[in-house]
Amino acid sequence: MTARIGVVTFPGTLDDRDALRAARVAGAEPVALWHRDKDLKQVDAVVLAGGFSYGDYLRAGAIARFSPVMERVIEEAKGGMPVLGICNGFQILTETHLLPGAMLRNNHLHFVCKDQALRVESAGTAWTADFAAGQEIRVPLKNIDGRYTADEHTLDELEAEGRVAFRYLGGNPNGSLRDIAGISNAAGNVVGLMPHPEHAVEPLIGTGGTDGLGFFTSILKKLVSAS
User: Which residues are catalytic?
Assistant: First the structure.
């Protein structure tokens, strides 16, 4: 059995083809999903890719949250389907309240584009099982609305429950509270992060490394073992 990983394209999505390719490189069957789709085409997991859905009007992810495809994504995620939100996808996940908190404009008010060092804080999610807690990885980062924020109670809860998935190393690039680069829901099937693992799956492109491939091999192994 080959797991089917769906990647959603909204108007303004930029990195859908990269995510589809990453799924293919990992050994999964990539499935393109359109924002107007009400059928998820029997996929086993969903990736919300990076970009500027609907031009980031109102605020990043606010309009995409109401796309027809998101009705099914929200429903399936609550039922346990693995969902990964990358950059704009992370913003959409906070707008849907599948993940807590919100994303604000970078504290320096500039777009940032760089290779970013991260520390894996949790290897207990569906998307991080191929990593080790404490492992350091490097993947591209590119955003202007990447500053993660939440109230102190929520932040303490995320820390206490081991739901901070990734933390920035070597300097905080956007002012995210507690250097948080990515988080998960309580069940561990929904993960969001601002950096772009799909751009670090082959030596020829991106960072020149394959540190991002672990996201896609993690979910593939989970899905295949559960079949």
Answer: 87, 196, 198
